[in-house]
């Protein structure tokens, strides 16, 4: 009955008509794994550019592509919930981290994690990025024979995971202090551990996608019996093992520090340094999570939240009505008493709610957050692999970017952050790559309310998806959309462009928390590579049209993001 109701409510939306039992319209997506994006695009060409309905198994979904259609979805403060049907599979690997949570739990975690990516913290990260990127470029140039085609994805993967371990977790994976991330596992050395983790993460995401498109595999006991189910178990073990190692090392560091300076948490700070948010800027997110010094909500913040959060309306409405009635009928003294009682009740109710959500008393369980932060690094490594290919394919862009890098390198007295911020053309080249290849090309919300679009209304309960791969090709905002032109992002050319025409990091309350982190890190890597080597196209990546781009949760190039490296002329190297 529910299905008939939802089908009729979506009757006015374009898209394939007859959803089959259990499969919905998924049959349109069945076919070879490497043709996923192509099949999605076919559906778009047939029914787009407006909203397109599509049943994923028994779940009705609507795909949105035009900036004016995705704006109401992404900017909504109320539509922040992730669809269980999709994120169940993600949760299997990465736990209840920020990416998968919904409702109040998401809100609290988001608040707790935000200071880890505060711009002041990024100032410290810029130095780490620059140092690590230079070492990475050196290592790449030394390891990859000149002129040989190679796939940059795995090497970038290990590099960015190493960076998150050093920045957000405060553990230098190369330092002996970290015990090289613990004793080698089954005879594997540290580098192998990171490589193994990269592979496990990549495969985990592929399995997630496989489950989404084969919804019966979302039934856990059934899934566990399949080949992918067994593989998933191995990947889970690898991800969980690394998470435990990281947390164990951090706990040891905190304990040693606590013994040295002695406040019990390992977090006291002799100089009492705090940033604007009251968070001790010297400490990473993991220090704070494990030291119990996470940004907890104060009573005032809780009451504030009760007022503003859509998920707690009933308590607020009842309270307001009661207070209004009382104001009319009783004397001022009684009103004051009632208000006090009401506030106490609200605080108690909300605190109880939080106790249920966070039984350990901490709003932040570090395990899923560590796993999530490890998982999302694939977005940066994949984007970097696309950037390397685009620079290889567009030599004139590469030369212009290199000239900028060398000029900034020649300047004296700049901090690492100042240097990275001066790389304006490099930044535009990164942005243009993310326009053409937005790594997270698709993301979804489960609608809790009706969603009003400019031309139609989408009923609540539907899974609404932003398909930004196509948004970024909207010819009204991106003339000649396939052309790679970093200068599209010159300030005067951005004037008048729809604010949702470019959303590689999503937008609104659930946008990417790591956006600035990722942009800085990518600029550091591009700068280090361009100062060291010239990039040339590799096998299968000889032209933009030849790239076999596909979607494996994240965008990827089938056959690898292949490039070749050429050492720079001696003079350029000396300048670098
Ligand atoms: C080029 C690199 C990156 C891209 C393109 C990207 C893109 C995105 C997008 C589109 C979302 C929204 C997804 C959704 O609504 O389902 C997102 C969320 C998120 N990203 Fe990123 N991301 C990148 C790098 C990073 C990095 C480096 C970090 C952490 C260090 C990070 C952490 C997160 C987190 C925690 C969320 C969930 C936020 C929430 O739901 O409140 N991302 N990212």
TrEMBL record:
Keyword Metal-binding: yes
GO CC annotation: endoplasmic reticulum membrane
Topology term for the membrane: Peripheral membrane protein
Co-factor(s): heme
SUPFAM superfamilies recorded: Cytochrome P450
GO molecular function, one term: oxidoreductase activity, acting on paired donors, with incorporation or reduction of molecular oxygen
Metal-binding is among the record's keywords: yes
Keyword list, A-Z: Endoplasmic reticulum, Heme, Iron, Membrane, Metal-binding, Microsome, Monooxygenase, Oxidoreductase, Signal, Transmembrane, Transmembrane helix
UniProt-annotated binding residues for heme: 512
Residues spanning the membrane: 317-350
Locations listed in the record: Endoplasmic reticulum membrane; Microsome membrane
Pfam families registered for this protein in UniProt: p450 (PF00067)
PANTHER family: CYTOCHROME P450 4C3-RELATED, CYTOCHROME P450 FAMILY 4
Similarity comment: Belongs to the cytochrome P450 family.
Function according to Swiss-Prot or TrEMBL: May be involved in the metabolism of insect hormones and in the breakdown of synthetic insecticides.
Protein name: Cytochrome P450 4c3
Source organism per UniProt: Frankliniella fusca
């Amino acid at each position: 009955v529910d299905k008939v109701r939802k089908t009729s409510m979506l009757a006015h939306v374009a898209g394939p008509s007859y959803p089959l039992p259990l499969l919905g319209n998924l049959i349109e997506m069945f076919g070879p794994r490497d043709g996923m994006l192509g099949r999605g695009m076919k559906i778009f060409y047939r029914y787009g550019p407006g909203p397109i309905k599509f049943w994923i198994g028994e779940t009705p979904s609507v795909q949105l592509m035009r900036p004016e259609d995705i704006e109401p979805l992404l900017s909504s403060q109320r539509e922040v919930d992730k669809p269980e049907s999709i994120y169940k599979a993600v949760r299997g690997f990465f736990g209840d981290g920020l990416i998968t949570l919904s409702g109040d739990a998401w809100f609290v975690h988001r608040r707790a994690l935000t200071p880890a990516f505060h711009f002041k913290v990024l100032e410290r990260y810029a130095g780490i990025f620059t140092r690590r990127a230079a070492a990475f470029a050196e290592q790449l140039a030394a390891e990859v024979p000149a002129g040989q085609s190679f796939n940059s994805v795995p090497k970038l993967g290990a590099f960015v995971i190493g960076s998150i371990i050093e920045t957000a977790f405060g553990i230098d994976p190369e330092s002996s202090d970290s015990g090289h991330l613990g004793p080698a596992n089954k005879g594997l050395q540290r580098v192998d551990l990171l490589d193994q983790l990269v592979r496990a993460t990549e495969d985990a995401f592929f399995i997630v996608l496989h489950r989404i498109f084969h919804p019966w595999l979302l039934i856990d006991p059934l899934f566990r019996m399949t080949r992918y189910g067994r593989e998933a178990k191995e990947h889970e073990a690898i991800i969980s093992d690394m998470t435990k190692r990281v947390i164990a090392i951090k706990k040891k560091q905190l304990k040693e520090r606590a013994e040295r300076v002695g406040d019990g948490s390992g977090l006291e700070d002799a100089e009492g340094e705090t940033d604007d948010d009251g968070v001790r800027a010297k400490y990473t997110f993991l220090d704070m999570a494990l030291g119990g010094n996470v940004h907890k909500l104060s009573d005032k913040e809780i009451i504030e939240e009760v007022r503003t959060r859509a998920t707690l309306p009933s308590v607020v409405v009842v309270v307001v009505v009661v207070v209004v009635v009382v104001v009319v009928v009783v004397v001022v003294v009684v009103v004051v008493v009632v208000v006090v009682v009401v506030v106490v009740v609200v605080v108690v109710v909300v605190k109880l709610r939080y106790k249920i959500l966070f039984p350990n008393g901490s709003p932040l369980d570090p395990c899923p957050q560590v796993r999530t932060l490890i998982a999302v690094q694939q977005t940066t490594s994949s984007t970097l692999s696309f950037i390397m290919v685009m620079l290889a394919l567009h030599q004139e862009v590469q030369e212009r970017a290199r000239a900028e890098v060398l000029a900034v390198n020649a300047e004296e007295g700049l901090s690492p952050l100042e240097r990275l911020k001066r790389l304006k053309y490099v930044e535009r080249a990164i942005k243009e790559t993310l326009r053409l290849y937005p790594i997270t090309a698709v993301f979804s919300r489960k609608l809790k309310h009706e969603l009003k679009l400019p031309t139609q209304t989408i009923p609540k309960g539907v899974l609404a998806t932003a398909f930004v791969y196509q948004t970024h090709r909207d010819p009204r905002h991106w003339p000649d959309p396939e052309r790679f032109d970093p200068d599209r992002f010159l300030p005067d050319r951005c004037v008048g462009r729809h604010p949702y025409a470019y959303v590689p990091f999503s937008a609104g309350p659930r946008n990417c928390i790591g956006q600035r982190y990722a942009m800085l890190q990518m600029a550091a890597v591009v700068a280090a590579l361009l100062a060291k080597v010239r990039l040339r196209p590799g096998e299968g990546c000889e032209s933009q049209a030849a790239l076999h781009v596909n979607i494996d949760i994240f965008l990827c190039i089938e056959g690898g993001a292949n490039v070749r490296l050429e050492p720079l002329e001696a003079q350029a190297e000396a300048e670098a």
